[in-house]
Write a structure and sequence with these properties.
The protein is of the alpha+beta class and about 120 residues long. It has 2 helices and 7 strands.
């Protein structure tokens, strides 16, 4: 029997399908992964400006199985969820993604901001 973290990760892998939504992952106008599963989350970023002000910003997170996505996300990529477009990004030169799982490196957490709804429903959904 593994550590409590390993046991928790195993439980989360089993529950992934129940907690996920279907999305499309796009880069430079092309769909790289259509209809893949992603769990939804959020990250609150905090950073201080040179003048001493603290800035807080919240981003939508998409948690993918790395094997489903198969690529490293890049700033500017797009994720489409139910017709809403999210642009992969992170504030203050933070990385736009990170490993979500502690030991297995099986899931990644991708940070994104909503860019609005798709204009043409015939495009990637």
């Amino acid at each position: 029997m593994g550590s409590i973290f390993e046991q928790g990760e195993a439980m989360m892998r089993e529950a992934f399908g129940y907690a996920s939504r279907t999305v499309d992952y796009c880069r430079a106008g092309s769909v790289l992964a259509r209809g893949i599963s992603a769990k939804l989350g959020r990250t609150l970023f905090r950073y201080e400006t040179p003048s001493g002000m603290t800035i807080r910003t919240e981003q939508r997170d998409f948690i993918f199985r790395y094997s489903d996505l198969g690529i490293e996300p890049e700033t500017g990529d797009e994720i489409v969820l139910a017709g809403e477009i999210f642009v992969v990004s992170a504030p203050n030169n933070e990385p736009c993604w990170r490993w979500h799982t502690r030991t297995a490196r099986a899931e990644i957490r991708v940070h994104a901001k909503s860019a609005g709804m798709q204009e043409n429903s015939g495009e990637a959904q």
